[in-house]
Design goal:
Layout lengths: L1 H13 L6 E3 L3 E6 L2 E6 L3 E5 L7 E8 L11 E11 L4 E9 L16 E10 L6 E6 L1 H9 L4 E8 H6 L7 E5 L5 E5 L1
Antiparallel strand pairs: 1-12, 2-3, 2-5, 4-11, 5-10, 6-9, 6-11, 6-12, 7-8, 7-10
């Protein structure tokens, strides 16, 4: 066992074993899709954070510039911890990629129609927070790098709330904790 650990230590020191890198968002914001004037970078929501039928969405931008020269990564995984609130059955959340490159997020990105679905997940009423989520975005990131783009922009929305509305007139959805949000990259 000591021999394996020693060999691993030598390989790590020599850079022979690739290590993952945590890429934090360059920026993230959230606003109600029914009133983009409520844009905030402090609270990241998906759903209805209060009794209004707001249909909040969160937009996240990752800067991939340092990976552009190589043109690809071995692995890219979105990791986030979400905190559900008020879900009385189950809600489906969707992660979409905004296809036009953006160097800066704007409230209007919440409504952008240039989105393509990349993943979805279900949160149930009895799920205990934090709910850790992981999504493989390797093909997505490599597609951007291959095209010479440096910005990955994602949008998170609550498809259930956006479809059925606010039937119980209460807060329902999830909060995303910004400091627990990252893109784990294996260069």
């Amino acid at each position: 066992m000591k021999g394996i650990l020693a060999t691993l230590a030598v390989l790590l020191a020599a850079g022979a074993v690739a290590q993952t890198e945590d890429l934090k968002p360059a920026e993230a914001g959230s606003t109600a899709s029914v009133c983009i004037d409520w844009w905030t970078t402090k609270n990241l929501w998906a759903g209805n954070p209060n009794t209004l039928n707001r249909k909040d969405r969160t937009t996240i931008r990752f800067d991939l510039t340092k990976y552009l020269a190589k043109g690809r990564v071995q692995k890219a995984e979105l990791r986030m911890a979400v905190y559900p609130f008020g879900i009385y059955d189950e809600n489906t959340f969707v992660i979409e990629q905004l296809m036009r490159e953006r160097m800066e997020l704007k409230p209007t990105d919440t409504l952008s129609d240039d989105a393509e679905k990349r993943a979805d997940f279900v949160i149930k009423a009895d799920d205990k927070p934090p709910c850790l989520q992981r999504f493989d975005l390797t093909d997505c990131v490599n597609g951007l790098l291959y095209a010479g783009h440096t910005q990955l922009v994602l949008r998170l929305r609550d498809a259930t709330v956006e479809t059925r509305g606010n039937k119980k007139n209460k807060a329902e959805g999830l909060a995303v904790i910004a400091n627990e949000l990252k893109l784990e990259i294996l260069p």
